[in-house]
Amino acid sequence: MGDKGVFGWLILLLAGLFAGCGSGPSYTTVDGVMLGTTLHVVADVRNTTSQELYRAIMELDREAKSSMSIFDEGSLLSRLNRNETDTVDRHIAFNLRLADSIGALSDGRYDVTVKPLVEAWGFAGKEAQADPNIDSILCFVGREKVRIEGNRLVKEDPRVQLDFNSVAKGYTVDLLADLVERFGAENYIVDIGGEVRCRGVNRQGQPWRIGVETPFDGNMTDGEYLQRRIRLSEGGLATSGNYRRFYLDADGNKVAHTLDPRTGRSVVSRLLSVTVVAPTCAEADALGTMFLALGADDALALAGRMPEVKVYFILAGSGETYEEYVSPAMQSLLME
Protein backbone atom coordinates (compact mmCIF):
# COMPACT_ATOMS: atom_id res chain seq x y z
CA MET A 1 0.00 0.00 0.00
CA GLY A 2 1.43 3.43 -0.94
CA ASP A 3 1.93 6.38 1.44
CA LYS A 4 -1.12 8.12 0.05
CA GLY A 5 -3.25 5.01 0.67
CA VAL A 6 -2.01 4.67 4.25
CA PHE A 7 -2.56 8.36 4.91
CA GLY A 8 -6.09 8.20 3.55
CA TRP A 9 -6.87 5.11 5.62
CA LEU A 10 -5.61 6.87 8.77
CA ILE A 11 -7.83 9.88 8.09
CA LEU A 12 -10.87 7.64 7.76
CA LEU A 13 -9.97 5.75 10.94
CA LEU A 14 -9.44 8.92 12.96
CA ALA A 15 -12.65 10.44 11.61
CA GLY A 16 -14.55 7.36 12.70
CA LEU A 17 -13.00 7.48 16.16
CA PHE A 18 -13.78 11.15 16.64
CA ALA A 19 -17.32 10.66 15.36
CA GLY A 20 -17.80 7.86 17.89
CA CYS A 21 -16.47 10.03 20.72
CA GLY A 22 -18.71 12.93 19.76
CA SER A 23 -21.94 11.01 19.36
CA GLY A 24 -24.41 11.23 22.24
CA PRO A 25 -26.64 8.54 23.69
CA SER A 26 -29.46 7.07 21.64
CA TYR A 27 -32.90 7.75 23.11
CA THR A 28 -36.03 5.61 23.02
CA THR A 29 -39.48 7.20 23.30
CA VAL A 30 -42.59 5.50 24.62
CA ASP A 31 -46.01 7.19 24.72
CA GLY A 32 -49.30 5.76 25.85
CA VAL A 33 -51.71 5.54 28.77
CA MET A 34 -50.79 4.59 32.34
CA LEU A 35 -52.91 4.78 35.51
CA GLY A 36 -55.72 6.06 33.30
CA THR A 37 -53.78 9.15 32.20
CA THR A 38 -50.98 10.12 29.80
CA LEU A 39 -47.63 8.31 29.72
CA HIS A 40 -44.45 9.76 28.24
CA VAL A 41 -40.98 8.24 28.52
CA VAL A 42 -37.75 9.34 26.87
CA ALA A 43 -34.71 7.33 27.95
CA ASP A 44 -31.34 6.10 26.71
CA VAL A 45 -32.18 2.49 27.58
CA ARG A 46 -29.74 -0.21 26.48
CA ASN A 47 -30.18 -3.55 24.74
CA THR A 48 -33.95 -3.33 24.44
CA THR A 49 -36.59 -2.15 22.01
CA SER A 50 -39.39 0.33 22.56
CA GLN A 51 -41.85 -2.58 22.33
CA GLU A 52 -40.07 -4.50 25.10
CA LEU A 53 -39.90 -1.39 27.25
CA TYR A 54 -43.60 -0.71 26.67
CA ARG A 55 -44.52 -4.25 27.73
CA ALA A 56 -42.53 -3.86 30.94
CA ILE A 57 -44.24 -0.52 31.62
CA MET A 58 -47.68 -2.03 31.12
CA GLU A 59 -46.85 -4.79 33.58
CA LEU A 60 -45.88 -2.11 36.11
CA ASP A 61 -49.18 -0.34 35.36
CA ARG A 62 -51.09 -3.51 36.20
CA GLU A 63 -49.10 -4.01 39.39
CA ALA A 64 -49.66 -0.45 40.61
CA LYS A 65 -53.40 -0.44 39.90
CA SER A 66 -53.94 -3.87 41.43
CA SER A 67 -52.33 -2.58 44.62
CA MET A 68 -53.24 1.08 45.16
CA SER A 69 -56.25 2.01 43.02
CA ILE A 70 -59.47 3.14 44.69
CA PHE A 71 -61.24 2.89 41.34
CA ASP A 72 -60.45 -0.81 40.82
CA GLU A 73 -62.86 -2.78 43.01
CA GLY A 74 -60.49 -5.75 42.98
CA SER A 75 -57.36 -3.87 44.06
CA LEU A 76 -55.70 -4.67 47.36
CA LEU A 77 -56.51 -1.17 48.64
CA SER A 78 -60.21 -1.57 47.78
CA ARG A 79 -60.28 -4.92 49.56
CA LEU A 80 -58.56 -3.40 52.60
CA ASN A 81 -61.13 -0.61 52.61
CA ARG A 82 -63.93 -3.20 52.55
CA ASN A 83 -62.20 -5.21 55.32
CA GLU A 84 -61.95 -8.28 53.09
CA THR A 85 -58.26 -8.61 54.00
CA ASP A 86 -55.84 -6.98 56.42
CA THR A 87 -52.60 -7.87 54.60
CA VAL A 88 -50.62 -4.98 53.09
CA ASP A 89 -48.00 -5.12 50.34
CA ARG A 90 -44.80 -3.10 50.01
CA HIS A 91 -46.52 -0.37 48.00
CA ILE A 92 -49.22 0.35 50.55
CA ALA A 93 -46.77 0.11 53.47
CA PHE A 94 -44.42 2.63 51.80
CA ASN A 95 -47.19 5.11 50.99
CA LEU A 96 -48.58 4.97 54.50
CA ARG A 97 -45.14 5.69 55.99
CA LEU A 98 -44.58 8.58 53.59
CA ALA A 99 -48.04 9.96 54.38
CA ASP A 100 -47.10 9.97 58.05
CA SER A 101 -43.95 12.02 57.45
CA ILE A 102 -45.75 14.60 55.28
CA GLY A 103 -48.80 14.65 57.54
CA ALA A 104 -46.59 15.58 60.49
CA LEU A 105 -45.84 18.89 58.73
CA SER A 106 -49.45 19.70 57.96
CA ASP A 107 -51.23 20.14 61.30
CA GLY A 108 -53.61 17.36 60.27
CA ARG A 109 -54.45 18.75 56.85
CA TYR A 110 -52.69 16.01 54.90
CA ASP A 111 -54.28 12.66 55.76
CA VAL A 112 -54.79 9.57 53.61
CA THR A 113 -57.86 8.38 55.58
CA VAL A 114 -59.99 10.86 53.62
CA LYS A 115 -61.57 8.27 51.31
CA PRO A 116 -65.09 8.56 52.85
CA LEU A 117 -64.96 12.34 52.43
CA VAL A 118 -63.64 12.11 48.88
CA GLU A 119 -66.50 9.75 48.05
CA ALA A 120 -69.15 11.91 49.74
CA TRP A 121 -68.08 14.94 47.72
CA GLY A 122 -68.09 13.00 44.44
CA PHE A 123 -64.37 12.64 43.71
CA ALA A 124 -64.04 8.85 44.01
CA GLY A 125 -65.96 7.68 41.00
CA LYS A 126 -69.38 8.06 42.62
CA GLU A 127 -71.92 10.84 42.40
CA ALA A 128 -71.64 13.54 45.07
CA GLN A 129 -74.11 13.42 47.92
CA ALA A 130 -76.52 16.34 47.86
CA ASP A 131 -75.98 17.18 51.53
CA PRO A 132 -73.31 14.91 53.02
CA ASN A 133 -73.39 14.39 56.78
CA ILE A 134 -69.82 15.54 57.32
CA ASP A 135 -69.85 15.32 61.12
CA SER A 136 -70.76 11.63 61.05
CA ILE A 137 -68.07 10.89 58.45
CA LEU A 138 -65.38 12.69 60.46
CA CYS A 139 -65.86 10.14 63.25
CA PHE A 140 -63.87 7.62 61.21
CA VAL A 141 -61.38 9.96 59.51
CA GLY A 142 -57.97 10.42 61.10
CA ARG A 143 -54.55 8.93 60.57
CA GLU A 144 -54.36 7.88 64.25
CA LYS A 145 -57.23 5.46 63.60
CA VAL A 146 -55.14 3.03 61.51
CA ARG A 147 -51.69 1.48 61.82
CA ILE A 148 -49.52 -1.30 60.40
CA GLU A 149 -48.40 -4.18 62.61
CA GLY A 150 -46.03 -6.45 60.74
CA ASN A 151 -47.73 -6.84 57.38
CA ARG A 152 -51.24 -6.25 58.75
CA LEU A 153 -53.38 -3.13 58.60
CA VAL A 154 -55.10 -2.57 61.93
CA LYS A 155 -58.12 -0.23 62.08
CA GLU A 156 -59.64 1.24 65.22
CA ASP A 157 -62.91 1.54 63.33
CA PRO A 158 -63.80 -0.77 60.43
CA ARG A 159 -65.24 2.20 58.53
CA VAL A 160 -61.76 3.77 58.16
CA GLN A 161 -60.75 3.85 54.48
CA LEU A 162 -57.53 4.89 52.76
CA ASP A 163 -57.06 6.98 49.61
CA PHE A 164 -53.54 7.23 48.15
CA ASN A 165 -54.45 9.40 45.16
CA SER A 166 -52.33 12.21 46.62
CA VAL A 167 -49.15 10.13 46.47
CA ALA A 168 -49.64 6.89 44.50
CA LYS A 169 -49.14 8.46 41.06
CA GLY A 170 -45.90 10.09 42.13
CA TYR A 171 -44.81 6.83 43.74
CA THR A 172 -45.54 4.96 40.50
CA VAL A 173 -43.46 7.53 38.61
CA ASP A 174 -40.58 6.56 40.90
CA LEU A 175 -41.17 2.87 40.15
CA LEU A 176 -41.13 3.73 36.44
CA ALA A 177 -37.83 5.58 36.87
CA ASP A 178 -36.39 2.51 38.62
CA LEU A 179 -37.61 0.40 35.69
CA VAL A 180 -35.85 2.44 32.99
CA GLU A 181 -32.70 2.49 35.10
CA ARG A 182 -32.81 -1.31 35.24
CA PHE A 183 -32.87 -1.17 31.44
CA GLY A 184 -29.60 0.76 31.62
CA ALA A 185 -30.85 4.33 31.24
CA GLU A 186 -28.59 7.07 32.58
CA ASN A 187 -30.48 9.95 30.97
CA TYR A 188 -34.28 9.92 31.04
CA ILE A 189 -37.55 11.64 31.78
CA VAL A 190 -40.63 9.66 32.81
CA ASP A 191 -44.00 11.41 33.01
CA ILE A 192 -47.36 10.06 34.15
CA GLY A 193 -50.12 12.66 33.86
CA GLY A 194 -47.74 15.58 34.36
CA GLU A 195 -45.86 14.11 37.32
CA VAL A 196 -42.22 13.65 36.46
CA ARG A 197 -38.97 12.02 37.44
CA CYS A 198 -35.82 12.74 35.46
CA ARG A 199 -32.08 12.30 35.38
CA GLY A 200 -29.25 13.57 33.21
CA VAL A 201 -29.83 15.45 29.97
CA ASN A 202 -32.13 15.50 26.95
CA ARG A 203 -31.25 14.81 23.32
CA GLN A 204 -29.69 18.26 23.01
CA GLY A 205 -27.43 17.63 26.00
CA GLN A 206 -29.39 20.13 28.12
CA PRO A 207 -31.35 19.70 31.38
CA TRP A 208 -34.90 18.48 30.90
CA ARG A 209 -37.50 21.24 30.57
CA ILE A 210 -40.86 20.87 32.28
CA GLY A 211 -43.78 23.25 31.86
CA VAL A 212 -46.04 24.51 34.66
CA GLU A 213 -49.55 25.16 33.42
CA THR A 214 -51.45 28.40 33.85
CA PRO A 215 -54.05 27.56 36.53
CA PHE A 216 -57.25 29.05 35.17
CA ASP A 217 -60.39 27.06 35.92
CA GLY A 218 -61.04 24.39 33.33
CA ASN A 219 -57.58 24.46 31.75
CA MET A 220 -57.53 20.99 30.16
CA THR A 221 -55.13 21.80 27.33
CA ASP A 222 -52.14 19.74 28.53
CA GLY A 223 -49.43 22.31 27.95
CA GLU A 224 -50.95 24.86 25.58
CA TYR A 225 -50.97 27.54 28.29
CA LEU A 226 -47.80 27.55 30.40
CA GLN A 227 -46.97 29.94 33.20
CA ARG A 228 -43.34 28.93 33.64
CA ARG A 229 -40.76 26.32 32.65
CA ILE A 230 -38.45 24.49 35.02
CA ARG A 231 -35.08 22.97 34.15
CA LEU A 232 -34.25 19.77 35.97
CA SER A 233 -31.46 17.21 35.79
CA GLU A 234 -32.28 15.08 38.83
CA GLY A 235 -35.31 14.32 40.97
CA GLY A 236 -39.08 14.35 40.95
CA LEU A 237 -41.58 17.11 40.18
CA ALA A 238 -45.32 17.31 40.79
CA THR A 239 -47.90 20.05 40.44
CA SER A 240 -51.15 20.18 42.42
CA GLY A 241 -54.04 22.50 41.70
CA ASN A 242 -57.80 22.91 41.95
CA TYR A 243 -58.36 24.22 38.42
CA ARG A 244 -59.37 20.88 36.85
CA ARG A 245 -61.06 18.62 39.39
CA PHE A 246 -63.88 20.75 40.75
CA TYR A 247 -67.55 21.51 40.28
CA LEU A 248 -70.04 24.19 41.32
CA ASP A 249 -72.68 23.29 43.88
CA ALA A 250 -76.34 24.31 43.72
CA ASP A 251 -75.46 27.73 45.15
CA GLY A 252 -72.66 28.30 42.64
CA ASN A 253 -69.86 27.66 45.13
CA LYS A 254 -66.72 25.94 43.91
CA VAL A 255 -66.16 22.46 45.38
CA ALA A 256 -62.60 21.31 44.73
CA HIS A 257 -61.10 17.86 45.16
CA THR A 258 -58.62 19.03 47.81
CA LEU A 259 -60.29 18.44 51.18
CA ASP A 260 -59.42 19.44 54.74
CA PRO A 261 -59.62 16.27 56.89
CA ARG A 262 -60.25 18.38 60.00
CA THR A 263 -63.39 20.09 58.68
CA GLY A 264 -64.39 17.65 55.94
CA ARG A 265 -64.84 20.57 53.57
CA SER A 266 -63.28 21.55 50.27
CA VAL A 267 -60.23 23.79 50.44
CA VAL A 268 -60.49 26.78 48.11
CA SER A 269 -58.10 29.69 48.54
CA ARG A 270 -56.17 32.08 46.35
CA LEU A 271 -53.41 29.45 46.16
CA LEU A 272 -54.18 28.03 42.71
CA SER A 273 -51.19 25.85 41.90
CA VAL A 274 -48.30 24.29 43.81
CA THR A 275 -45.24 22.84 42.07
CA VAL A 276 -42.72 20.93 44.16
CA VAL A 277 -39.32 19.48 43.25
CA ALA A 278 -38.04 16.78 45.58
CA PRO A 279 -35.64 13.82 45.50
CA THR A 280 -38.54 11.53 44.59
CA CYS A 281 -41.80 12.15 42.79
CA ALA A 282 -43.74 10.52 45.63
CA GLU A 283 -42.45 13.20 48.01
CA ALA A 284 -43.17 15.97 45.50
CA ASP A 285 -46.70 14.62 44.96
CA ALA A 286 -47.55 14.43 48.66
CA LEU A 287 -45.97 17.80 49.48
CA GLY A 288 -47.87 19.48 46.64
CA THR A 289 -51.19 18.21 47.98
CA MET A 290 -50.23 19.20 51.51
CA PHE A 291 -49.36 22.80 50.58
CA LEU A 292 -52.57 23.13 48.56
CA ALA A 293 -54.61 21.84 51.51
CA LEU A 294 -53.01 24.42 53.80
CA GLY A 295 -54.44 27.33 51.83
CA ALA A 296 -52.51 30.39 50.72
CA ASP A 297 -51.52 32.00 54.02
CA ASP A 298 -50.46 28.86 55.87
CA ALA A 299 -48.72 27.44 52.82
CA LEU A 300 -46.65 30.59 52.42
CA ALA A 301 -45.84 30.62 56.12
CA LEU A 302 -44.74 26.97 56.14
CA ALA A 303 -42.66 27.35 52.97
CA GLY A 304 -40.94 30.32 54.61
CA ARG A 305 -39.94 28.09 57.53
CA MET A 306 -38.53 25.45 55.16
CA PRO A 307 -35.76 27.19 53.19
CA GLU A 308 -34.59 23.87 51.74
CA VAL A 309 -37.94 23.07 50.11
CA LYS A 310 -38.19 23.68 46.36
CA VAL A 311 -41.64 25.12 45.70
CA TYR A 312 -43.29 27.40 43.17
CA PHE A 313 -46.74 28.79 44.04
CA ILE A 314 -49.12 30.52 41.67
CA LEU A 315 -51.69 32.63 43.53
CA ALA A 316 -54.66 34.66 42.39
CA GLY A 317 -53.83 38.35 42.21
CA SER A 318 -56.05 41.32 41.60
CA GLY A 319 -58.50 40.95 38.74
CA GLU A 320 -57.31 38.19 36.42
CA THR A 321 -53.63 38.53 37.28
CA TYR A 322 -51.42 36.04 39.09
CA GLU A 323 -48.88 36.37 41.84
CA GLU A 324 -45.93 34.03 42.30
CA TYR A 325 -43.92 32.73 45.20
CA VAL A 326 -40.60 31.03 44.46
CA SER A 327 -38.69 29.53 47.37
CA PRO A 328 -34.96 30.32 47.55
CA ALA A 329 -34.05 26.70 46.77
CA MET A 330 -36.28 26.76 43.65
CA GLN A 331 -34.93 30.01 42.17
CA SER A 332 -32.15 28.47 40.10
CA LEU A 333 -34.47 25.90 38.49
CA LEU A 334 -36.98 28.38 37.05
CA MET A 335 -36.30 29.53 33.50
CA GLU A 336 -36.79 33.15 32.50
TrEMBL record:
Single GO MF annotation: transferase activity
Residues that hold Mg(2+) according to the record: 166, 285, 289
Name used for this protein in its record: FAD:protein FMN transferase
Superkingdom of origin organism: Bacteria
A Gene Ontology term for the protein's cellular component: plasma membrane
Main subcellular localisation: membrane
Gene3D superfamilies in UniProt: ApbE-like domains
Note accompanying the cofactor annotation: Magnesium. Can also use manganese.
Matches recorded under SUPFAM superfamilies: ApbE-like
Cofactor field: Mg(2+); Mn(2+)
UniProt record similarity statement: Belongs to the ApbE family.
InterPro entries per the UniProt record, alphabetical: ApbE (IPR024932), ApbE-like_sf (IPR003374)
Record's catalysed reaction(s): L-threonyl-[protein] + FAD = FMN-L-threonyl-[protein] + AMP + H(+)
Keywords: Cell inner membrane, Cell membrane, FAD, Flavoprotein, Lipoprotein, Magnesium, Membrane, Metal-binding, Transferase
Role played: Flavin transferase that catalyzes the transfer of the FMN moiety of FAD and its covalent binding to the hydroxyl group of a threonine residue in a target flavoprotein.
Membrane topology: Lipid-anchor
Originating species: Candidatus Alistipes intestinigallinarum
